[in-house]
Amino acid sequence: xxxxxxxxxxKKDHRPSLKDWSCDGFHKTFPxxxxxxxxxxxxxxxxxxxxxxxxxxxxxxxxxxxxxxxxSPQEFRERYEAxxxxxxxxxxxxxxxxxxxxxxxxxxxxxxEKKSEHCHYHDIExxxxxxxxxWRALERWKLEALDQDEHLRERRLxxxxxxSGKSIRIRLKHFLRYLHNNIDDSPLYIFDSSFDDDSVAKxxxxxxxxxxxxxxxxxxxxxxxxxxxxRWFLVGPERSGTxxxxxxxxxxxxxxxxxGKKRWVLFPPNVPKSIVKGNGLIRKGEDDEAVHYFTTILPxxxxxxxxxxxxxxxxxxxxxxxxxxxxxxxxxxNGWWHAxxxxxxxxxxxxxxCSSQNFDxxxxxxxxxxxxxxxxxxxxxxxxxxxxxxxxxEINARDNFVMKYDPQEVARREREDERQKQKRRI
Length: 426
Hints:
CATH superfamily of the largest domain: Cupin
């Protein structure tokens, strides 16, 4: 079966109501948009308020631009992650983030041998004078290299979902032909999280390393089968992207780009969802895919903000746009709205994570969104991070929150069920 047949079926399964994927002709108009973005000064960094656009110098702009050669993981956590400041970090895939000595907090001294089973610290500690070790992905994830990888090119990767939620998968070799030859307005996008399914998929894990800035992965205390999807291998044609969203369960995220260029827009947590989504600004028959959002909807949001004069729901409105280049790692703190558009063909990797810095918010989301996982997570926190387990229980007590799978609560429900059965017998 040829690549055209395979991808046409995938498109039909992914968006069965869309008959013509190229009806808006973005393959003709997009080059003008992308060239305009890529030719902007200040590397495309823009800060927008109700007063209009401002091209700020790097010392003041968001996201902050950092170099892994110059900042240690501890400095990053204290100066940026602790304050929820988005960042773009260079020199990570080249390995410079791992040459800093790792500074651990006081709580990291507990149960060191057991903790090593769950955390990345033991993998990345290096002497400050050690030579950086570049990611293998820098070579292996180039488009030409992927197409020549006899094992990976045959691997079926996720590029969409059925309405039922079932994954749509196609072979990488077919997708790469599609990537180079499609004229779709918003093309299919490989967003695959099945790293543990087989040896071929697992090989991708050896091609990159979690940056030392983000190696405190508290969800790692939960088994891979129980924890939510959290890491994705990305291959995106130009014009593909992700719609505006907040990452799930209040997690933060990092995204490293190996090939190509991406356009990002960020909205601070205080900007209402209705504004970010462009409620009332999307006309009948219009799409809200990433390419439509950046080229059509976002300009309308900005115009509406100007016309409001900063009053009403647009009070304190802000958004930040920037271009991510090859080798750059973007850090998005929890709660920040963001959307991404591939200006060129791209390859990269992204992961969501929970750390000590965003633990409170993640715990509140997880205890209601993943009830059974939350209880098992709490038991693991008791053993490896007792100060966080204590914090979780304090938050529960403050909110009068009862965990569904707490043994005492389970026993109470069983007693209540038995009483109801006895009443029915009477």
